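Hi,

Apologies if this is the wrong queue. I'm a grad student, and the batch job for Chloride channel protein, CIC family from Parapedobacter koreensis produced an output file that my downstream script rejects. I'm not sure whether the problem is my script or the file. Here is the sequence I used:
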Amino acid sequence: MQRKTQQFVHRLNQWRMQKISNRNFLVILAVIVGVIGGLAAAALKGLTHSIAAFLQDDVQGQYKYYLYLFFPLIGILLSVLYVRRFIRKGTFEHGMTPIIYAISRKSSRIQSHNIYSQIITSALTVGFGGSAGLEAPIAYSGSAIGANAGRFFGLNYREVTMLLACGAAAGIAGAFNSPVAGMIFAIEILLPEFSIPAFIPLLMAAATASVVSRLVYSEPLFHLVTEDWVFHALFFYVLLAVIIGGFSIYFAKVSTWAKAVFARITNPYQKVGISGISLGILIFLFPALYGEGYLAIQQILDGRMDALLANSIFADYRHIGVLIVVYAVITVFAKSLAALVTLNSGGNGGVFGPSLVMGGLLGFAFSYGINLTGWIELNVANFVVAGMAAALSGIMHAPLTAIFLIAEITGGYALMVPLMLVTAISYLINRAALRYSIYTKVLAEQGDLLTHEDKDRTVLSMMKLRYVLERNFTILRPDERPADRRHDIIHTKRNIFPVVDTDGKLLGIIYSERLFEILLGESPEKEGKTMRQLAEKPMDIISLDANMEAVMQKMNREDIWILPVVDGSGNYMGFVSKSAVFNKYRALLMRQGAYLE
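Support response: The file is valid. Your script probably expects a header line. Output copied below for reference.
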């Protein structure tokens, strides 16, 4: 069966290469990826909202909030059980970071199970109240659709990467019914260096996904609510952007702390228990944390300023304006903790949605609080929208995505100037303190991030020592004498010989010039010496797991062209030479050039 499939694909590829140009075929595949990505987005939204509606509509009365204590625990547990039961042969990751890593270090390969496993686990997590967003899972699912479509048709790295980005764009476009934002998201996050032709497949994928998603699941994320901005409010937009820029730095640092805390818990079910109980308590106190949290934002946009308190156990105080502001601010920080607990405990989701909610709540607390002073009357809905854009820009380092996403999903094109202002300020504040976004920080620290600011370092970080290792050297044994290996020494193409004992340990090296002197009788005093006695200690020894940047620094510092490589136990593995590194370097530069075309 597999052979017949391979033969069919081969014949199909031969036909399409004769009839359709590669560029046109890429556009066709982008449309197909867009259709499937749009269906996946609709399926994820529909499944998640169905689970949430079932739980919320069937649970009424005075015990409703008490039952919320257990829903997140159940959702995360089901997600963990699914992964451990059905994804045994592969790995399961969530968020945008693994997608960026796949582009940088895995030739844009994404395991096919992510097409459906991301949808199932995130629907369980968020539908049962996990405080996370659906955007990262659907982008991951879309990326898997695009990458595997490219692999199926035997496309090259550049084309597979483009289809991967098309899938991510389709996912975001389908999730938000926002094709422009989906396209810009793919460019800003996944394809930071791009050319104009890249727009065409991305446009087709994003537009197709948006149409398909709207046909299947037409419920908008937010209703049109914004009004035109006024000049005297610009100062307050700037002030809000500064506040949210500072908050985005806090969120990034808390995110790092949360990952470290949960990494110390090795038992997955212990993680589920701790996180489930913690989330249950937080949602009991702050119902707006349940699921994505967009409902609370929409209620505020509709003018229900007391909605946060009205839906909580503190409903009796919903008429006190100051308490509404304080409660909204506390809810923001609670949301940050709830989202990070959800994502680091086995639940599946992303920080995309929580960023929007936290920014919207900060915009609400800021503008509503200013209005309570009586100094000035600010349009609360406008500031909620601006806060969402500022938070997304600062946390994700994606100001263009923030501008067009918020403008599309809220009808806020009239707010384009304030949106541009707050996204730029928030981004600059976060970038001044943190060079990398929440998505790329870990990859940058590990040397796995593909950047174009330092091309040499980036290309070296993409190399693995085992791929440039040379093994075709003649191995000499310590008890042998030069005459014993005359034929091998004379006919070898290498000028260096490793001396290795029977256990595989590297004892030293001998250069061919020294052995030739002995074999030609120019050093008769050394003819009876063994290889152990003739061997010399190499100037340095490289470990097999060494970073290639460190290897090249070592070679340049000591002006060495070739060095032996050993594993963690000191066993001889081969040699690494500058020539092999340079050849690999050229190959990777060509690959990067293809990626940017």
